[in-house]
Fold:
Amino acid sequence: MSLQGKVALITGGSLGIGAAIAQRLAREGAAVTLDYHTHRAAADTIAAGITSQGGKALVLQADVSQVAGVQSLVSQTVQTFGRLDILVNNAGIEEPMPFLEVTEASFDRQIGVDLKGAYFAAQAAVRQLIAQGGGGCIINISSVHEDLPMVGNAVYCAAKGGLRMLTRTLASELAPHGIRIVNIAPGAIATPINAATLADPLKTRALLAEIPLGRIGLPEDIANTVAWLVSDQASYITGTTLFVDGGLMVAAGTL
Ligand code: BGC
Structure:
């Protein structure tokens, strides 16, 4: 599954799932750019760990909800490593609240990072991939909530649902260029996005009851899936979503 000679850009690479993906792809030999928004020290620590193992890592700051931000992530990655092969649209936020309480600012923030950010990062990456020739791969870290409704989280669900259709549509549009695009839909993973739930024993127990495999997922569960999906072993997969959720989706279907 070697990614030797490949270059990967991971948005939201300082923490949680994104950090695990950066480490995993670097372990396979890819040079990685870790984008962060707020947590510079965390991104630096992940990058230092990668370089101490002989890998290559670049740390960049960007607000992915700004088109200029994602464009500069791609151009600086190419300036540093000479090419781009893999984009992982991982950066994501959620601000759960009842529908009637959602403000325009909260709506714009969530759609901005979760959907617009992924869209324009893909656009910038695809321009580079086409200019290079030779194809490439885009992975969107979506959510079970691209398909599964979640009361009190409508904006997040709408953003992830949008990501699902974006992937399905782009798969056909980009296939002639040899570019694959695939969504990974994590269930409940132990990351900062779930910190409040996981700090509350009652909420954790309720969540666990919804997961047939009986455990909260780890960032590495997602990172392992990314490593496989971007490799040649998955070269016939595009335009679909892989659920990595301990069975949460199927259990929801049995209620
Ligand atoms: C959300 C979490 C939620 C999980 C399972 C994720 O996409 O970010 O808040 O626990 O889905 O419902």
Observations:
- The chain has one domain: 7-189+217-247.
- Residues 92 and 114 are 5 Å apart (CA to CA).
- The pocket of beta-D-glucopyranose is lined by residues 94, 143-145, 187-188, 193-194, 197 (CB under 6 Å).
